Structures are given as structure tokens and as C-alpha cells.
Amino acid sequence: MMSFCHNVINISCEKSSWSNDVRASLYSLMVLIILTTVVGNLIVIISILHFKELHTPTNWLIYSMATVDFLLGCLVMPYSMVRSVEHCWYFGEVFCKIHTSTDIMLSSASIFHLSFISIDRYYAVCDPLRYKTKINILVIFVMIFIGWSIPALFAFGMIFLKLNFKGTEEMYYKYVHCIGGCSVFLSKTSGVLAFMTSFYIPGLIMLCVYCRIYFIAEGQARSIDANQKLQIGLEEKTRISQSRERKAAKTLGIVVGVFLTCWCPFFVCTVMDPFLDYTIPPTLNDALVWFGYLNSTFNPMVYAFFYPWFRRALRMILFGKICQKDSSRCKLFLESNP
């Protein structure tokens, strides 16, 4: 039997017809994603705040990104979970706008931070002698400010000024709008703008930076191998340098791969839907949103736990050693790292 989100059937959104078993499975899966996102990013936040050795410009950028992803897990995902499973919005129209704006803002801010971190790693690997002068704490704070402010202005401006369906108001209110729902409707113009701002431009930056680092790392590795016999005195130094560059290239490769895998399907569907007369099923779009959320779940694993000093910080946090006196001064770097 068909059920609705609101008492007035002819203007109400249709409620989910899934069985209780399907609902329970979906809730369990989404709760697991939310908890993993929140806990993983919280550990990164605590690590960087607590350990003085991690108070570096690069790590403040990672800290800011972890904060974005943590807030996404706390403030956005739980309400999105109810909406995705029930196909209804129970929290009011005003909060729908706030939630939608916050969702777009935090998702975009997370992507912006990824692109800024790739730029930071580019200078660390490709121009190490001038890295500290080019990427200082002021530059990092500018990156953080841009990473938060532009997504906030874009998201809240678009939703609260109703720019997302400007020019298609008649179609939206006649065929799409219903009471008890909370979905993002984008016109052709706003869909392309969202695609360019939140995905294409930062994604292109990440891809270009990764390719640049990869080719530089490979070129230097071949150069080191070719001259290894002539540079016996510098063997250890060149070995560390080669390992560092390959590690940076590998890390950024994983980052780009995870980013594209998680967000590409959603943004391609988002930009194509208006040109296909909105024929993409809402259920598919909802599933792709959660696939995009997984990027925030994986970020702490890729960026933090990939490095041994963060794993040491994790062990200290889990075993309660951070409560000991002077634990903030513990040495986490056991070797020279970029």
C-alpha cells in the first residue's frame, strides 16, 4: 500500500515502500559510515591538537580538512540518513534549507582542502629548498580561509536565494516540489556551476599536481639509479629522497583515485540530470550522495593513518597514554619525513 509523508495526499511526497528488514539494513550501514567518519576524523583532530611535533603548517591544513569531515559526519549525515531511508523530511522547511546548504558547503570544503593539500605536497616534493618560504603558516591560513569561505558563500547563497532553480520555477513547483521532501533541484546553469566549482576545478588541480609529482619522482628515481655508482657517498641521502618522492606520489595517487571514485558518479549525474529532463531516479541520486560521503570517511585513513607517525599517535590515544604528563612532547617521527 502506498504511503505518504504528509496528510494532504495530493501535495505530499511519497514515503518509502521498503520493508522493515531493508530499512534496518540501510540504517545499520549508514550508522557504520557515520561512526567511522566521526571517529576517524576526531582521532586526526586530537592527534594534531595534542602532539606539539605535529604543529606544522601542513598538518594545520589536514586538521582543517578533518574538522570539515567531522562536522559533515555529525551535522549532515544523520539527517541525510533518515531522508534517504524514509524518503521523507521530518525536520521542517527552514531546517531543510540549512541542512542542504551545510551539506553542499562541507562536501565542497572537503574537496577544496584536498586540492590545497595536493598543492602543499607538490612544493614539498618538487621544490623542497624553498618549501618553507613558499608554504608558510600565513599561506596555509589563507588556504583554510578560502577552503571554508567560498563553499559557504556558494552553498548558502545558492539555496537561500533560490538560485538553484532560477529560470525553472514553474516546472519545479508544478512537477517536482512536494510537502515532506528535502531534495536539491538544480537548473542547467546551477548544475554546471556546481559541477565546475565543487568538483571539476579542484579535481583538475589534484590530477595535474599528481601527474607532475609522479613524473618528477620517476625522473629523479631514474637519474639516481643511473648515477648510483658515481655517488657512493650520497647513497643513503639519495635513497631517502627517492623513497620520500615515491611515497608522496603514491599517497597523492591514492587520494586522487579515492576522490574520483567517490565523487565522480554523483557530480556527473548532477550535471547531466537537467539535460536529461530529470529522468535520473531520486533513489540513485541519493545512493550516489552517500558514495560521495565515503570520501570524508576515507580521508583520515588516506591522509593520516597512511603515515607511521599518525599510527603511533593513534596507539597512544587508544591506550590513554595522552593523559600522561608531557605526552604532548612525545616523539612521533622516528625517521626523516617530508
From TrEMBL:
<comment type="similarity">
    <text>Belongs to the G-protein coupled receptor 1 family.</text>
</comment>
<keyword id="KW-0472">Membrane</keyword>
<feature type="transmembrane region" description="Helical">
    <location>
        <begin position="26"/>
        <end position="49"/>
    </location>
</feature>
<dbReference type="GO" id="GO:0005886">
    <property type="term" value="C:plasma membrane"/>
</dbReference>
<keyword id="KW-0807">Transducer</keyword>
<feature type="transmembrane region" description="Helical">
    <location>
        <begin position="288"/>
        <end position="310"/>
    </location>
</feature>
<dbReference type="GO" id="GO:0005789">
    <property type="term" value="C:endoplasmic reticulum membrane"/>
</dbReference>
<keyword id="KW-0325">Glycoprotein</keyword>
<protein>
    <recommendedName>
        <fullName>Trace amine-associated receptor 1</fullName>
    </recommendedName>
</protein>
<feature type="transmembrane region" description="Helical">
    <location>
        <begin position="135"/>
        <end position="161"/>
    </location>
</feature>
<dbReference type="GO" id="GO:0007193">
    <property type="term" value="P:adenylate cyclase-inhibiting G protein-coupled receptor signaling pathway"/>
</dbReference>
<keyword id="KW-0256">Endoplasmic reticulum</keyword>
<keyword id="KW-1015">Disulfide bond</keyword>
<keyword id="KW-1003">Cell membrane</keyword>
<keyword id="KW-0675">Receptor</keyword>
<dbReference type="GO" id="GO:0001594">
    <property type="term" value="F:trace-amine receptor activity"/>
</dbReference>
<dbReference type="InterPro" id="IPR009132">
    <property type="entry name" value="TAAR_fam"/>
</dbReference>
<dbReference type="InterPro" id="IPR009133">
    <property type="entry name" value="TAAR1"/>
</dbReference>
<keyword id="KW-0812">Transmembrane</keyword>
<keyword id="KW-1133">Transmembrane helix</keyword>
<feature type="transmembrane region" description="Helical">
    <location>
        <begin position="104"/>
        <end position="123"/>
    </location>
</feature>
<feature type="transmembrane region" description="Helical">
    <location>
        <begin position="248"/>
        <end position="268"/>
    </location>
</feature>
<feature type="domain" description="G-protein coupled receptors family 1 profile">
    <location>
        <begin position="40"/>
        <end position="303"/>
    </location>
</feature>
<dbReference type="InterPro" id="IPR050569">
    <property type="entry name" value="TAAR"/>
</dbReference>
<dbReference type="GO" id="GO:0007189">
    <property type="term" value="P:adenylate cyclase-activating G protein-coupled receptor signaling pathway"/>
</dbReference>
<dbReference type="GO" id="GO:0007200">
    <property type="term" value="P:phospholipase C-activating G protein-coupled receptor signaling pathway"/>
</dbReference>
<dbReference type="InterPro" id="IPR017452">
    <property type="entry name" value="GPCR_Rhodpsn_7TM"/>
</dbReference>
<dbReference type="InterPro" id="IPR000276">
    <property type="entry name" value="GPCR_Rhodpsn"/>
</dbReference>
<dbReference type="Pfam" id="PF00001">
    <property type="entry name" value="7tm_1"/>
</dbReference>
<feature type="transmembrane region" description="Helical">
    <location>
        <begin position="61"/>
        <end position="81"/>
    </location>
</feature>
<feature type="transmembrane region" description="Helical">
    <location>
        <begin position="193"/>
        <end position="215"/>
    </location>
</feature>
<keyword id="KW-0297">G-protein coupled receptor</keyword>
